[in-house]
From TrEMBL:
Species assigned in the record: Candidatus Curtissbacteria bacterium RIFCSPHIGHO2_02_FULL_42_15
GO process terms (BP): translation
Function: Located at the top of the head of the 30S subunit, it contacts several helices of the 16S rRNA. In the 70S ribosome it contacts the 23S rRNA (bridge B1a) and protein L5 of the 50S subunit (bridge B1b), connecting the 2 subunits; these bridges are implicated in subunit movement. Contacts the tRNAs in the A and P-sites.
Superkingdom in the source lineage: Bacteria
Entry's Gene Ontology cellular component terms: cytosol; small ribosomal subunit
Keyword annotations: Ribonucleoprotein, Ribosomal protein, RNA-binding, rRNA-binding, tRNA-binding
Protein name per its UniProtKB record: Small ribosomal subunit protein uS13
Family assignment from sequence similarity: Belongs to the universal ribosomal protein uS13 family.
Pfam families per record: Ribosomal_S13
Length: 133
């Protein structure tokens, strides 16, 4: 595995796909960077020369990626929670932020379902509630 911009990039993948393993680099930006570096998008990472890797490194320095981008996103979320905006409160409560419904879905955010069953007859008598007939 080669390291470019602080991220491990798989050697067997095409360069166009391999660049997307860097946080903050998607398909569009990867194509743009490859075009600026005058590289063939179909070449494999293992076939890159040192000069080509260096040109990729230099080009990637112009963009906010990896640690800097993660830090910026975390600071934005922290700011929202501190000013107690609606989005900040949703982040704090670990609920969907962008207006999705939570009544039926949002399982990944809310966690596993908790099934609350009916009260058995013996337990109902102990509590003092009238059991259903």
């Amino acid at each position: 595995m080669k390291r470019i911009a602080g991220a491990d990039i798989p050697e067997e993948k095409r360069i166009e796909v391999a660049l997307t393993y860097i946080y903050g680099v998607g398909n569009f930006l990867a194509r743009k960077i490859i075009k600026k570096c005058n590289l063939n998008p179909d070449t494999r990472v293992k076939n890159l020369t040192e000069d080509e890797v260096n040109s990729l490194q230099r080009e990637l320095e112009n963009y906010k990626i990896e640690g800097d981008l993660r830090r910026e996103v975390q600071n934005n979320i922290k700011r929202l929670t501190e000013i107690e905006s609606y989005r900040g409160i949703r982040h704090k409560r670990n609920l969907p932020v962008r207006g999705q419904r939570t009544r039926v879905n949002a399982r990944t955010k809310r966690g596993k379902r908790l099934t609350i069953g009916t009260v058995r007859k013996e337990v109902a008598v102990k509590i003092g509630a009238q059991p259903k007939k």
